[in-house]
Design goal:
Shape: elongated
Distance between the termini: 50 Å
Strand content: 15-25%
Number of domains: 3
CATH architecture of the largest domain: 3-Layer(aba) Sandwich
CATH topology of the largest domain: D-Maltodextrin-Binding Protein, domain 2
Strand order of the largest sheet: 4-3-5-15-6
CATH class of the largest domain: Alpha Beta
CATH superfamily of the largest domain: Periplasmic binding protein-like II
Structural class: alpha/beta
Largest sheet: 5 strands, mixed
Length: about 290
């Protein structure tokens, strides 16, 4: 039995799509279909009902699925037991994150990772929307937000420290805010749909209504508007650091409240053992975030 055929079957079940299974494993959809057909021919049963819109397991497929998963887990554990850490960090690692974080944090970090692991390949998918990592064949997603309950495996790798920033030009003729309440008199650069910002105050969370003439759906547009002097923006420290060093932005500190950090997660499909390529990436990301903090 060819375990590549078995992997196609398991991936197709997880992604509910043969095309998605092919993307995850790096094979064309036609090849994925042929491999599944080959597995069914070898077993002498039909494992899945296939249509142009959906896949559905047959009773035989449901019975075979846990055994197929066990076969793949045993293969991965066997390879991991024989290989050294450097040698086992190989193959294609597909990562997804938001555009700004991917460009500013992950891309430089990935360069160092590739230098250490010459058998590793990386595909970085930048998308500000929430990606279905199973359907898209993604190995690990970096998410900066509270997580919803799911069957995915989430590892907290750091904290996203945030602050209030504005350009020097914004404060020409304006008094900088010193308290949370002062923000009511300022232009606040918000994300689309935001009407208030929440701060950690002396006695708990403080919700401050905000107003402003500019909103955007993405972090980069908000940052650019901030650089142009259009108002105050909430930015991650890693996103503002270069502009602060160049005196293009000023961090505004309030005496009675601060923005709470948000967690940074590395999210992957739940498996019995973590692939080495995912493990070395997560470890490198933790080191990188600690250096930023």
């Amino acid at each position: 039995m060819d375990l590549t055929d078995v992997a196609i079957f398991v991936a197709a079940v997880e992604a509910a799509s043969l095309a998605a299974a092919g993307r995850r494993l790096g094979v064309a959809p036609l090849i994925a279909s042929r491999r599944l057909a080959s597995l069914e021919a070898q077993l002498g049963v039909r494992l899945m009902h296939r249509s142009t819109r959906a896949l559905a397991l047959t009773p035989e497929g449901e019975a075979f699925l846990p055994h197929a998963q066990a076969l793949l887990q045993a293969r991965d554990e066997g390879f991991a037991a024989l290989a050294s850490d450097d040698a086992s960090a190989s193959g294609l690692l597909r990562i997804t994150s938001s555009g700004p974080f991917g460009r500013r944090i992950l891309t430089p970090m990935v360069g160092d990772l590739l230098a250490v692991h010459p058998k590793l390949k990386v595909e970085l998918l930048l998308n500000d929307a929430l990606v279905d990592i199973v359907a898209q064949g993604v190995d690990v997603a970096v998410r900066i937000a509270p997580l919803r309950d799911s069957s995915l495996l989430a590892r907290r790798v750091g904290s996203n420290l945030r602050g209030l920033y504005a350009s020097p030009s914004y404060f020409q003729g304006r008094t900088p805010p010193t308290t949370v309440a002062d923000l009511a008199a300022h232009e606040c650069l918000a994300y689309h749909g935001e009407t208030a910002w929440t701060f950690d105050g002396r006695h708990g969370a403080v919700r401050q209504p905000i107003q402003g003439r500019f909103t955007a759906t993405g972090m980069e547009a908000v940052r650019e508007a901030c650089l142009q002097g259009l108002g105050l923006a909430r930015l991650a420290h890693w996103d503002a650091a270069e502009d602060v060093a160049a005196c293009k932005l000023i961090e505004v500190r309030l005496i009675d409240g601060a923005l709470a950090p948000t967690p940074i997660w590395a999210v992957s499909a739940r498996t019995r053992s973590t692939p080495a390529k995912v493990r070395v990436f997560v470890e490198a990301l933790q080191v990188r975030l600690r250096s930023l903090a």
